[in-house]
Amino acid sequence: MKRIVLGVSAGIAAYKSVLLLRLLREAGHHVDVIPTGNVENFVGNATWEALSGNPVTSSVFDAVENVNHVRLGQMADLVMVVPATADLLAKAASGLADDLLTGTLLATRAPIVMAPAMHTEMWQHPATVANVKTLRDRSVRIIEPASGRLTGKDSGPGRLPDPEEIFASVQDLLSEPILAGQKVLITAGGTREPLDPVRFLGNRSSGRQGVALAEAARAAGAEVTLIATHLEVPAPHGVSLVEASSALDLREAVFTHAPGKNVVIMNAAVADFRPATIENSKIKKRDETSAPVIELVRNPDILAELVQARSTTENLPGFIVGFAAETGDEMGTVLGYGRAKLERKGCEMLVVNEVGATLTFGQETNNIQVLFADGTDAVSAAGSKLEVARVVIEQISHATKGHAAQK
Ligand code: CTP
After folding, report:
1. Can you give the pTM of this predicted structure?
2. Best residue among 204, 264, 266 to mutate for probing ligand 1, ranked by most atoms within 8 Å of CB
3. How many domains does the chain divide into?
4. Which of 4, 79, 210, 378 is the most buried (most CB within 10 A)?
């Protein structure tokens, strides 16, 4: 957990900062929000207080006994200003300190990140350009505004990037580099097994957990290659992206990219079966009543093959992690099935999650148990997919210390 000051200056993009606050909180951080006075025209203090869980004021004259204008900045691990208006940039560049946010910017020694948002003319004005240069020269990290629709009918550079993008761009400042120097291959999403040119057999994996793992691994300092099979969410920034579609494509991609990696995380939901034949043209209704019978054949078990390949092939990852989507039934528990699967697959770690119509697939949150082949006690975690991903990455970091991470 880090302590973050989230400064908000008075632009209409303040509403995106509300979403950023949620992302920071979901990732487990303590956040003190400091809006400038006029922010109340866009988002009220009640919203910031409810979502941050901390009191919120713009004034240096509230809670004076805490000396907030110095204390919040001194305690912070990171100070962000989202959105940063032209006026705020000018004040920060000049070292003015006439409210709680600008005072905090002077008092802090933590890294400062600002995400400017304003109309294109204001962003390109020589005064703003000079202020941005001054701030950058003082090591303030300025996130380039995006191009696109602005408040009125105009469009151009000046738009605040999406909260997810801003969140991703500060991950390196929020995480310990526990996987620094490690090369990690992650598969995410769900495979599609073609039936004909337009149809496929698929599954309900959205790729959210795999993307969160890639984000958490990259934030932990790893060099990440993400093999994406049909993600419903954008791939994170700062990872090398490889696309695959069917289980056979995925197998090829995994065996191409696994050599030289230290860790592989097989998070993709791989179809166990595929249609025996792929029709060249769309399957048609031949008459009024009959329906085709589709013959399926087994797909390779990529994870098990990769584990086995290590006995004959040099340079494959020494630490392989599987994911098990399990449901309990009258024959056994989720955990029992997980332990049996860990043994069957032969990998070093298995992350078990319970799936069902309303659990895991496509949801924002997840419940997991991490099982280890070496007999270490299982670790459980619950929370947002990013929180869960961070636990998995911590466990991998822990387990690979002392483990010959690359054979
Ligand atoms: N997996 C794989 N190749 C397959 C099937 C699964 O590599 N053909 C990997 C998944 O990426 C995951 C792990 O194996 O890391 C477990 O996936 P899961 O679907 O739970 O296991 P299955 O082996 O398919 O077992 P089950 O019979 O329970 O479906």
Report:
1. 0.76
2. 266
3. 2
4. 210
